[in-house]
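seq as requested:
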Amino acid sequence: MKITVLGAGRCVTGSKYLLEWKDFRLMVDCGLFQGPAEYRQLNWKKLPQPPHGIDAVILTHAHIDHSGYLPRLCRQGFEGPIYCTPPTRALLGVLLPDAAHINEEEARYANKKGYSKHKPALPLFRMADARAALKLLESSAFDHWHELHPGIRFRYHRQGHILGAAAVELETKVAGGKKKTIFFSGDVGRYGIPILHEPQPYPGSDVLFVESTYGNRFHGDEEPRNVLGEEVRAGISRGGIIIIPAFAIDRTQEILYLLHELMVDGDLPQIPIYLDSPMGIEATTLYTRYVTEHDAEMQHFFANQENPIFPPTLQVTPSSSESRKLNSMRGPAIIISASGMATGGRILHHLRLRLPDEKNTVIFTGYQAKGTKGRRLLDGDEEVKIHGEWIPVKAHISRVTGLSAHADAGELILWLSRRERDPEKVVLIHGEYDAQQAFAERLKEEFDWDCEIPDLGDTVTL
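struct tokens:
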């Protein structure tokens, strides 16, 4: 058996792992590459295995860097089942059409403005491809074994990263009637943060593929609620608009939760909050629907008919016309929009309009990958290119740490330390190379584990 790393190898995007038996081929995760052009161009590259020859896909969760290649896969001939948890299935009903819409709109806008190198610019996939992928989704509940093929089965473990996020435990029969387990961590969630359950501990396996996004970092002791309050108050004092780029799933809901708490406690004035992300609006609704996925505190709120992810001044702008009305708005006010790394979506229009004004504030609340506009802004670039135009950066740029949905190095160690047995092989995935090297050293020191760190295209033979 062999496993080929088709994404998230020495990088944090495009998660895709092709598992090949003699008579069965499986892909774990099927994500889009995001970020700099050199990565995005990989989305157009042919897979080593023709999609019609892949028998099934298992998703760990709904984030686009783990699921967004599905429409492209279907466009190229994939017809097999796509397994996911029930909340992930609901989120994909929002995410995949939105991704298709963005692809089509960006191609249309590039053709209109003439800034694409390709004539004409084409979308990576279309709405019809997203619908085709959604028809192939099959729900699989947490903690229940699901047979994929004779001698091959899997089950999901909760990871707490976002709504519906899971690790995948894969069991396969080998020579002599024995069984081997391969464990994919997916993205490991945090401990002690609002809304969702904490991740279930790693149970142990023969082979472990573990993410390492924050393998060399710690989120720090700062209380995100207090830092967010300070940054918003500073933005209010400047008198401008406060822009918060936020991932539509989980980060948006956590920010709304904290803003609600700050306003109810009197630590922030009741200024208007606009959620300008159609996907974020729908995802927020889904977060309130899946009460079984909530932690004890959230369940207590809902039992008392309170919804802590709807601040009292929240307004939503689902349509493009409602979004455009925000262009003429004066501060103070808060606009929350996607994407969280400023790689696409409505946030680019807000940044293009608001960055040149020093009265405005941009607050980043999550990890910013190398090459993204978010990273460039945090690194202090004096101008950024948006829709083919260089935009001067005069607005105040800040960040709130500790809001990441990814476990940091210490939390990853905690998640791994509760295992029942040690893995025979450990493979580090989904991390920038320096973070992976640091985490490999830490795992050697803590557990005496030797780790492999495959690059894109590398094959792990079992």
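Residues 86-113 form the longest helix (28 residues).
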